[in-house]
Amino acid sequence: MELKRLEVPTTSITEVKKSPMDVFQQAREAGTGVYVFNREKIAGIMLTQQQYEELLDQLQQFREHSFQSTQETEEMVSLEGLSQQLIQQIRQTIVVGTSIAAKQLDEKMVSLGFITKKTGFGGVTELIKELQTTGKMVYQFRKKNQEKNLYVDLIGELDVQNQLGDRMVVKKILARQLS
Q1: Which domain of life is it from (predicted)?
Q2: Residue 55 lies in a domain
Q3: How many domains does the chain have?
């Protein structure tokens, strides 16, 4: 069996104990963290102070961008003619950026008055297939809003950290109306 070789610098916990400054120098030269192994398992990753602070800055920027995207989505939804109460319910029920089981997500959308074409036996499997092929799950509001059909697109991706493959991470919630 051939071991997978990492494309990043590595060291052992023994080397860290001998000379931690050498490991920091290695991280500085490589421009990335150094994976520290203990008995063939990753014990941690060593970064320079500058690398760590850059990661914190990127995380803060990501959070700000995510917050702005959520606000833009809410504005778009309200422009589409949805009642504020329904917007609030969607926001409280579906949390953007978190992992949720497809079946649970479907049950929550149905409880809010939405339906999907993917119902009946194997419906959740069809929802997962739709997510894999289109990057979204589409729901339609049961009641017509001023003679227009209201749709909500749950844009996201499969949660790759879940072994069962039935969970998704909702990235964005968009609403649209069709005549």
Answers
A1: Bacteria
A2: no
A3: 2
Q: Containing domain of residue 27, as a range?
A: 10-47
- Give pLDDT tens digits along the chain (179 positions): 454 555 778 999 999 999 999 999 999 998 888 999 999 898 999 999 998 888 888 878 777 766 555 555 544 544 445 556 676 777 788 888 888 888 888 888 888 888 887 655 556 778 888 888 888 888 888 765 555 677 888 888 888 776 666 788 888 888 777 76
Cβ atoms of 35 and 10 closer than 8 Å: yes
